[in-house]
């Protein structure tokens, strides 16, 4: 029972007020930024996802704060000062988060546009159907990569190049956890979508407001809780539960060869299903 009380699921409910506060600290700025760009799109007559989704960029530093609070509560089992932890993560990761926001914006805008475009063409030509399928798979892979980017950014002292390199490697290195996170987030996303589609009048406003308040926090909590263990096993531990992985003789040999053949500019090498330091030391952000 004690173990369950410290589980991520139990702590979601016992620390819900703190999680809700952190969620609002992200959701409100995101809603404001998105509202501004949506308003601009209507006033300018350029009603397109390219303009609608621009709010992702300035909101991403706030998302870093949300991820940090959730990491502390769900993974590290800490009782944190939400405001202080959120603001510290916002400040320390501001520049990288803006860049991450730009990348996320490009992925969302381009994927959405390409899927709509090729999805329409696929109805009349089987060749475009193949292209449409490729874009679907690519978009899912990029979405999974975005699961990892914020967590790696706020947790490890890595260059942007290494953050994205490691995030891409983790798409394939932790497939089972990625599928679990994707399915769970997909379920709640579909539920929100149905609620918005079928709500009418004043109820639609209520559903949209509740979705803005709760959805980002819940989705992020699921993602961080599911992928955190895989990240620690692959990149480095940020909790006290550091159970060392014991390598076989064959794995030691492969790891030695990988280090010898690695690019000297790389901070990490992916080998034996793990990311290992090469040879520079990686610091963990507290």
Automatic annotation (TrEMBL):
InterPro entries: DUF624
Protein's name according to its UniProt entry: Putative integral membrane protein
The keyword Cell cycle belongs to this UniProt entry's keyword annotation: no
Keywords assigned: Membrane, Transmembrane, Transmembrane helix
Keyword Transmembrane on entry: yes
Any Pfam family the entry gives: DUF624
Domain of life: Bacteria
Transmembrane domains' residue ranges: 20-43, 49-70, 98-120, 126-154, 175-198, 204-224
């Amino acid at each position: 029972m004690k173990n369950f009380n410290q589980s991520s699921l139990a702590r979601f409910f016992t620390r819900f007020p703190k999680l809700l506060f952190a969620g609002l600290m992200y959701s409100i700025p995101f809603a404001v930024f998105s509202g501004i760009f949506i308003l601009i799109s209507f006033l300018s007559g350029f009603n397109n996802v390219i303009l609608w989704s621009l709010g992702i960029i300035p909101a991403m530093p706030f998302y870093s704060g949300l991820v940090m609070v959730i990491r502390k509560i769900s993974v590290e089992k800490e009782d944190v000062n939400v405001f202080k932890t959120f603001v510290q993560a916002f400040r320390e990761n501001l520049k990288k988060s803006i860049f991450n926001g730009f990348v996320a914006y490009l992925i969302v805008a381009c994927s959405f546009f390409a899927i709509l475009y090729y999805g329409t063409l696929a109805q009349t030509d089987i060749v475009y159907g193949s292209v449409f399928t490729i874009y679907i798979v690519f978009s899912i892979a990029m979405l999974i990569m975005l699961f990892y980017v914020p967590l790696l950014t706020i947790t490890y002292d890595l260059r942007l190049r290494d953050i994205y390199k490691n995030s891409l490697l983790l798409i394939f290195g932790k497939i089972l956890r990625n599928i679990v996170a994707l399915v769970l987030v997909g379920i709640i996303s579909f539920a929100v979508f149905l609620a918005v589609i079928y709500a009418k009048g004043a109820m639609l406003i209520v559903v949209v407001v509740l979705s803005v308040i709760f959805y980002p926090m819940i989705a992020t909590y699921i993602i961080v809780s599911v992928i955190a263990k895989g990240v620690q096993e692959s990149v480095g531990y940020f909790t006290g539960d550091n159970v060392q992985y014991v390598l076989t003789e064959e794995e030691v040999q492969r790891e030695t060869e990988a280090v010898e053949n690695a690019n000297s500019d790389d901070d990490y090498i992916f080998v034996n299903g793990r990311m290992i330091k090469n040879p520079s030391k990686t610091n963990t952000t507290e």
